[in-house]
């Protein structure tokens, strides 16, 4: 089969392309910005990439066009496909029909931690010899790739609640029909497509409805929104994790996030010792253990695998050090994710100064829906520098409660200059964005190195 993918350079669609190529299909694709690293990964797989959405691409005559959710009506190539009556489908639908059918799908859903937990789970199953397939919205460093078919029955997938395509407004994850579903957490996000939290809870309810009676729903016991989801109906075994008190059958942690016992009720079943930081990763680990157990991996074996887990790129990743200042990169963009990321670094560095550089880049943040939460999100940082360009709201006003601890910069160069001026040896500079952030990490390291 020849498939032509519209929007191929996104992390999800790029993963679909890699899986299709590995399965022996002919794969071509296009995007508005054919850019690395995904463009480099795809070309290395022999996938032809085309810049833009020229309607002339219909002359490629693929068997099927696979449409990413970045494509909307009015896109010239999409309009040509519709006018000609050519066959098309969405990425999640193609994946469900050509890759996931007949597999034991383990789907990881939640507002935060999807990429990390999916990577953990794939690594635990790999360590156990199950040779899983996986599709992750990032690059797990244990594997060095974001997607593969695998040889065993399990397939681990990051289950995004974002919409499927312009012609299918259901969340992506309803297509995956998991046998094991992880519900990590649930907050309001994606304000561009969801009116409120209740609308997202409905999509999670739809996901729960697809899990068979012999399946397992792994649920964060601390999340009220997830309890509301289950109260609407659940037909599968429920395995809870993260309770702060002893509960029969539930997994919980005792100890610090980098070294803790895993308890089921009052009984210790495993111990995790690793280099990851933050209580959020402790919860991600508990979710991973509960899900892995459903495919026969004991908590003890899963914990041993986590001891060798190398995390995902762009998760508190140390990019370098110059003149005694360490510069980190992280994907955090939602206020809760920012808060937990800063807290994780704070736990590591103690009283050392933390300087954050961040940009409100996601659609939700650009709309200003959560601007009032930013002072809370950044409360454990000593200084914060916001890239305030292209916002429909006043960043300085939103950050005013932080006083002199927050500064707004109109562009990347002025932000770099401000951070470099403020930084001193022993500081930790944490850059947070769900995009490339204008190459701010390398610019900071170069400017710090050049400072006399």
Automatic annotation (TrEMBL):
Its EC number is 6.3.2.45. Its cofactor is Mg(2+). This is UDP-N-acetylmuramate--L-alanyl-gamma-D-glutamyl-meso-2,6-diaminoheptandioate ligase. It comes from the Bacteria. ATP binds at residues 110-116. It is an enzyme of class 6 (ligase). It comes from Ideonella margarita. GO terms for molecular function: UDP-N-acetylmuramate-L-alanyl-gamma-D-glutamyl-meso-2,6-diaminoheptanedioate ligase activity. It holds the Pfam family Mur_ligase. Residues 108-292 form the Mur ligase central domain. Residues 2-100 form the Mur ligase N-terminal catalytic domain. It catalyses: UDP-N-acetyl-alpha-D-muramate + L-alanyl-gamma-D-glutamyl-meso-2,6-diaminopimelate + ATP = UDP-N-acetyl-alpha-D-muramoyl-L-alanyl-gamma-D-glutamyl-meso-2,6-diaminopimelate + ADP + phosphate + H(+). Residues 314-435 form the Mur ligase C-terminal domain. Reutilizes the intact tripeptide L-alanyl-gamma-D-glutamyl-meso-diaminopimelate by linking it to UDP-N-acetylmuramate. Keywords: ATP-binding, Cell cycle, Cell division, Cell shape, Cell wall biogenesis/degradation, Ligase, Magnesium, Nucleotide-binding, Peptidoglycan synthesis. Belongs to the MurCDEF family. Mpl subfamily. The keyword Magnesium applies. Pathway: Cell wall biogenesis; peptidoglycan recycling. The keyword ATP-binding applies.
């Amino acid at each position: 089969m020849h498939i032509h993918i519209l929007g191929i350079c996104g992390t999800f669609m790029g993963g679909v392309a890699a899986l299709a190529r590995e399965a022996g299909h002919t794969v071509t694709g296009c995007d508005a910005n054919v850019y690395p690293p995904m463009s480099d990964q795809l070309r290395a797989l022999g996938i032809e990439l085309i810049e833009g959405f020229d309607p002339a691409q219909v002359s490629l005559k693929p068997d099927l066009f696979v449409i990413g959710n970045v494509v909307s009506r009015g896109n010239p190539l999409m309009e040509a496909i519709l006018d000609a009556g050519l066959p098309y489908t969405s990425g999640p639908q193609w994946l469900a029909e050509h890759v996931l059918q007949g597999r034991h799908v383990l789907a990881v859903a939640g507002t935060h931690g999807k990429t990390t937990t999916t990577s953990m789970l794939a690594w635990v199953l790999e360590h156990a010899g199950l040779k899983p397939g996986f599709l992750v919205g990032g690059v797990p460093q244990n594997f060095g790739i974001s997607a593969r078919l695998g040889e065993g029955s399990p397939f681990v997938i990051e289950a995004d609640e974002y919409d499927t395509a312009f012609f299918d407004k259901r969340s992506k994850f309803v297509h995956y029909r998991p046998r094991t579903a992880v519900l990590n957490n649930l907050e309001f996000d994606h304000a561009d497509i969801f009116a409120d939290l209740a609308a997202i809870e409905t999509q999670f309810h739809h996901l729960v409805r697809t899990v068979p009676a012999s399946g397992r729903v792994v649920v964060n016991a601390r999340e009220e929104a997830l309890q509301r989801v289950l109260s609407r109906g659940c037909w599968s075994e429920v395995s809870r994790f993260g309770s702060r008190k002893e509960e029969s059958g539930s997994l919980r942690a005792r100890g610090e996030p980098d070294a803790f016992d895993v308890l089921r009720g009052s009984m210790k079943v495993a111990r995790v010792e690793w280099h990851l930081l933050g209580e959020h990763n402790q919860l991600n680990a508990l979710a991973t253990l509960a899900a892995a157990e459903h495919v026969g991996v004991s908590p003890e074996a899963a914990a041993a695998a986590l001891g060798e887990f190398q995390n995902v790129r762009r998760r508190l990743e140390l990019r370098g050090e110059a003149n005694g200042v360490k510069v980190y990169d992280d994907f955090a963009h939602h206020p809760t994710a920012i808060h937990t990321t800063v807290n994780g670094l704070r736990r590591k560095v103690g009283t050392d100064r933390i300087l954050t550089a961040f940009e409100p880049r996601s659609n939700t943040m650009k709309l200003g829906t959560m601007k009032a939460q930013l002072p809370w999100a950044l409360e454990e940082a000593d200084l914060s520098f916001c890239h305030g360009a292209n916002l429909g709201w006043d960043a300085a006003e939103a950050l005013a409660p932080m006083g002199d601890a927050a500064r707004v910069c109109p562009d990347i160069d002025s932000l770099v200059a401000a951070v470099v001026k403020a930084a001193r040896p022993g500081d930790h500079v944490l850059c947070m964005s769900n995009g490339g952030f204008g190459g701010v990490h390398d610019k900071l390291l170069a400017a710090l190195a050049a400072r006399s």
